[in-house]
Amino acid sequence: MEKLYEGKAKVLYPEGEDTLRVYFKDEATAFNAQKRGIIPGKGVVNNKVSAALFRLLEERGVKTHFVEELSEREMRVKRVRILPLEVILRYKAAGSFAKRYGLKEGTPLKAPLVEFSLKNDALGDPLICEDAVLALGLARPEALEAVKATTLRVGEILKAFFAERGLELVDFKLEFGEREGEILLADEISPDTMRLWDMATGEPMDKDRFRKDLGGVEAAYQEVLRRVLGG
Ligand SMILES: Nc1ncnc2c1ncn2[C@@H]1O[C@H](COP(=O)(O)OP(=O)(O)O)[C@@H](O)[C@H]1O
Ligand SMILES: [Mg+2]
């Protein structure tokens, strides 16, 4: 089957005008693809975790691109025009944010913080402010407001969901797309795109284990899946 697009973590296959089949790979990249590797079983985990979280969010009234799971590594989604933005919600300082401001990882923030970066690998996904998003015409003002409000709502839902499972949601990245005048939550929500810390031990249970060579990467992904499905 001919590919529509192959990215760093997923392959998109066309299914006509309206839907796509997304295949989740085991390939992992970090630091703007300077670090590369394989996390065996990651594609299965990310497909199943994303599917479960999209279902949860739909139940709570968040509109997403998710249609159905097709196999262990594949889901069907509505085809959207992806806004060229990575939308990040942070509860505590970690990763690039901690580095940028000279903060210790885990420093709490006074309030949840929404950040945007321009989705552009060649430029290294630079941070972009809301006024620049509007000035460059990357999103209409109403779309930007909807994206921000939805991201905060998604954060409330996911933070509570993971807390019930002994995982602290530290930050996450979302992508949104437009379709028939609607803004839909798209892409994936997985241990590749969230920071999850075990509440009992403080250990990272996400892609930071790969980024920082902490070991136990596969086991951490499997444990996140177990807790997400285990309810
Ligand atoms: N519903 C959708 N319709 C169209 N494109 C999508 C949809 N969901 C996700 N995408 C895009 O699919 C691409 C493939 O995913 P991924 O491998 O993560 O790529 P990347 O290397 O760009 O991060 C991403 O660029 C993402 O924006
Ligand atoms: Mg991606």
From TrEMBL:
Q: Which reaction does it catalyse?
A: 5-amino-1-(5-phospho-D-ribosyl)imidazole-4-carboxylate + L-aspartate + ATP = (2S)-2-[5-amino-1-(5-phospho-beta-D-ribosyl)imidazole-4-carboxamido]succinate + ADP + phosphate + 2 H(+)
EC annotation from Swiss-Prot or TrEMBL:
6.3.2.6
Quote the pathway field: Purine metabolism; IMP biosynthesis via de novo pathway; 5-amino-1-(5-phospho-D-ribosyl)imidazole-4-carboxamide from 5-amino-1-(5-phospho-D-ribosyl)imidazole-4-carboxylate: step 1/2
Q: Which family does it belong to?
A: Belongs to the SAICAR synthetase family.
Q: Source species, please? A: Thermus brockianus
**Name by which UniProt lists this protein:** Phosphoribosylaminoimidazole-succinocarboxamide synthase
Broad EC category = ligase
Checking Pfam families in the record gives: SAICAR_synt
List each copy of the SAICAR synthetase/ADE2 N-terminal domain by range: 3-227
> Organism's domain of life?
Bacteria
CDD domains found in the cross-reference section? SAICAR_synt_PurC (cd01415)
Keywords in alphabetical order, please.
Answer: ATP-binding, Ligase, Nucleotide-binding, Purine biosynthesis
